[in-house]
Amino acid sequence: MRRIDKEMKDGIEEVLRRAKICRIAMCDEGVPYCVPVIFCYSDGFIYVHSARKGRKIDVLKRNNIVCFETEVDISLIRVGSPCEWTLAYKSVIGVGKASFVEDREEKRKALNCIIKRYSDEDHEIPDEELDKVEVIRIEIEEMSGKKS
């Protein structure tokens, strides 16, 4: 991180727990590809809900290295002229390896984590519903936080 004075060492997990959207960046045969996803942070992993087919799935099967980014507490700071305005925020950026969750119990737990996060509800997910979606687990290799 270039601006060490903005580095956020404490609060990284809080950002991951509070953020509503996570962006996952991948490399599709040399072309950058980034998608916003609903997600959950649990047990040191990021879990992502996904359809079973699509570009994201195809790309991750070829290259499972990802970058992720999310942020909270975004507000405009008006100082001086509009060209001097800035944003206040807390963000987390990291790198990891994505894999598809095959274990039914881990998949069910991850989906429940995602559902509870966005709806504050618990649901029983039958096996036939589990088979209709993918759950992607990102094993975080490194991440850093920034407070601006």
Concise synopsis of the structure shown:
The chain has one domain (about 5-140): Pnp Oxidase, Chain A (Roll), CATH 2.30.110.10. Helices cover about 25% and strands about 45% of the residues. The protein is built from 4 helices and 8 strands.
Mean pLDDT across all amino acids: 94
The count of helical stretches stands at: 4
The top-level CATH class is Mainly Beta
**CATH homologous group name:** Electron Transport, Fmn-binding Protein, Chain A
Number of distinct beta strands: 8
Terminal-residue CA separation: 12 Å
Residue share in β-strands: over 45%
CATH architecture annotation name: Roll
- What helical percentage do the residues reach? 10-25%
In the CATH scheme, what's the topology name?
Pnp Oxidase, Chain A
Approximate shape: globular
| pLDDT < 50 runs, ≥5 residues | none
Rounded Rg: 17 Å
Order of helices and strands: EHEEEEHEEHHE
User: Structural class of the helix and strand makeup?
Assistant: alpha+beta
In total, how many domains does the architecture comprise? 1
Q: Give the biggest sheet.
A: 8 strands, antiparallel
What characteristics describe this protein?
alpha+beta; 46% strand; Pnp Oxidase, Chain A; 148 residues; 24% helix; eight-stranded antiparallel sheet
How would you describe the overall organization of this protein?
The protein is of the alpha+beta class and 148 residues long. The chain has one domain: Electron Transport, Fmn-binding Protein, Chain A (Pnp Oxidase, Chain A), CATH 2.30.110. It has four helices and eight strands; from the N terminus they run E-H-E-E-E-E-H-E-E-H-H-E. The protein has helices at 12-18, 55-62, 104-119, 127-130, and strands spanning 7-8, 22-28, 31-37, 39-42, 45-50, 65-77, 86-100, 134-147. Strands 1, 2, 3, 4, 5, 6, 7 and 8 form an eight-stranded antiparallel beta sheet that branches. Strand 2 (22-28) and strand 3 form a beta hairpin. The model has no long low-confidence stretch (mean pLDDT 94).
